[in-house]
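EI: anyone free to look at a 121-residue chain?
SC: sure, send it
EI:
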Amino acid sequence: MVEPETLVGIFDAEGGLRGELRYVIDKLAGRGHCALCDITHGLNPLGKRSFKEACAASGVTMTLLHRDEASSEQLAMSGELPVVLAGAGDNWRVLIPAGDLAACDGSPARLLELVEERSEN
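SC: here you go
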């Protein structure tokens, strides 16, 4: 039996309170950012309403993980973070690489357009 593909977005940030605080401090200080964070959360720890609404309207379900929460198989396939992967179990493929996430310019709608375009191929 073949498992259905799932979508996993991996942030270029650590999880937990300490990781979240470090990310916000670094972003505000101009020392770094994560394009996937910009799309899904901005600086809102609860997430952007526009991202949640866009996912609900499109029917897309995406699991969001910090780099320390991803599996070794997911990280091995990821390359540069952030990334959106598609797959299941030990079999993952890059659906949307870091550069394409950056090109979304924080737009949940653009991210979901890319998911739809690339999931059909």
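EI: The longest strand covers residues 6-11.
SC: 👍
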